[in-house]
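Hello, quick one for you while I still have it in my head. My current little project is about how a certain protein chain folds up. You're getting the sequence in one-letter code plus the fold written as tokens. Would you mind checking whether the tokens look sensible for this chain? Here's the protein in full, and shout if anything looks odd to you:
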Amino acid sequence: MILRTNYVLIDHENVQIEALPGLDAEHFKVLIFVGANQNKLAYELVAPVQKMGNRAEYVKISGNGSNALDFHIAFYIGQLAAQEPKAYFHIISKDKGFDPLIQHLRSKKISIARSSSIADIPLLKASNAKTATEKIEVIVGNLKQRGSAKPRTIKTLSSTISSLFQQQLADEELTSLLAELQG
């Protein structure tokens, strides 16, 4: 099964990433946004980025100013979403200023989320969840993150859970998870 492209856009001014755990799979593409005054990057970050080849790149912004880097991230998301409307976008930043943009993009059916760290990316959390309890935690976390855009029917919830786990759940396991959520 081919997984859809997952773009990970990292606000390196806001979150100091020193590694890229879990992003070595083919369906991940990484863009690391570096501020105009950031002149040094940790070897622990540079080495894995280099190994990713053309699936990873640095975007050094040229100017300074309030939210300059954030505007660059927003621009790249718009450009990439136009090129690949089925892709999933992950903003790695602690900056909650992205949240209104995320809500707007979701209303336009663009799959996007903001996480404070790479480890919090929903797909990585889902793929690392092995037990039913861990999977329920991932599902509940995803539902909380959706705010008022939660699934309204069991059928939609089922589809949402299936998508969260990249259609890798067996029908019996999906039914069991739904039953546990209802219980």
Observations:
- Residues 68-83 form the longest helix (16 residues).
- The first strand starts at residue 6 and ends at 11.
- Residues 80 and 104 are 16 Å apart (CA to CA).
- The chain has seven helices and five strands.
